[in-house]
Design a protein that fits this description.
Number of helices: 6
Distance between the termini: 64 Å
Largest sheet: 5 strands, mixed
Helix content: 10-25%
Shape: flat
Radius of gyration: 29 Å
Order of helices and strands: EHHEEHEEHEHEEEEEEEEEEHE
Oligomer: single chain
Number of strands: 17
Length: 323
Amino acid sequence: MSLSFTSPAALLLLFLLLPMVRVWLVRPNSLTPLRKRAALVLRSLTILCLVMALAGTQRVTLSKNVSVIFLMDRSLSTGGDSQKWQREFVGRALTQRGAGDQFGVVLFAKDSRLELAAADHEVQQIEAFSAVVDRSASGLTSALRFAATAFPGDSASRLVILSDGQSTEAEAREEAQALAAAGIEVWTVPLPDDEVPDLLLSRLETPDRIAVDEPFILRTVVESSGIGEAELLITADGAPQNRLKVKLRPGPNLFLIPQRRSTPGPVHFQARVLSSKDQRPENNKGDALSMVGSEQSVLVLRSESGPGSLVPLFQSAGLKARA
């Protein structure tokens, strides 16, 4: 057993014990020598406990057993034969497990589902997946957080990700690094490349709030594999806004599309990338929601009649206010 600290710099506060002990020993008081030493010990223990709590003290126990969670990408971008390959990979991995090792399976796409809880299962091969996920997107960041909660606490933790890496959520790399910092081994296993022409609309971003008639930028990221040209269709509440012919290079392509809205209220933006060469058109759509603002108002509640001092203050700031 050993100790680890999440904030080791807080241990420097232990130096406060030195002046406290010195002052306590030299300062005259009415306590007997025995009570004086007992009070010193209790105060020192109190400071020690506070400092250890601030330092995030953790007890680390070594375990020879390993718990493995297989995190499997079931989004449409992985192709039709990926499930068979994933099950065969797990079967090969299970032949190498030691006595007492545990394993579990989590499926993810737009959402995440627990297929098999981590335990010492006797099965050596997964015949089929029973959990159902929404395959229209690939939420790897959310899936990493979900899988981290599936580990038991009595063994070492290892997360094996079987994915094509085409996440429709940002910050997946940062989340994996956070898991590694928390003591969870993160392994990545890329799925076999089918080498078919494919487009992926991996990101669509708009501002959360937009002022009326304010110009803003719609950010779209299209990832291309083997396709050089496509059409990018932008709609707002179902009405076409832009239809652009775009040239694509292999990998991610960023498009900045100027927009303007003159009607207040929520607006649903949707982007689609279209190409007759695309063999997996199911992952070519992205959605975003923005609120086009109208005049903001503030209601001031007062115990007495009259506008008071707050209403003129809000009105001078350009807000509609009434008491």
